[in-house]
Amino acid sequence: MEIKTISVTYHRKFNLGDYESLELGCSLWAQIDREEDAEGATKFLYMQAKASVKEAAMPLIKTSAYQMNKYKQPAKQNTQDDLENF
Hints:
Helix content is 45%, strand content 29%.
């Protein structure tokens, strides 16, 4: 089977507390040649879509008290590291 087009969709839903939620998503498409690695292209598109959703969500997560409490750790660990791991 010859793969010509790859589509990847990444969605994430965030609970903002007080019965509010936010759903963000990103869909990416790519056309590939026969010689290209379809699996590698799919992984690349997935990572790009995930990064795009993360970039869009970070300002809202940082302003949401519910989400910030979710990521709180004991004083010896850094909350920023947990947010970066998303």
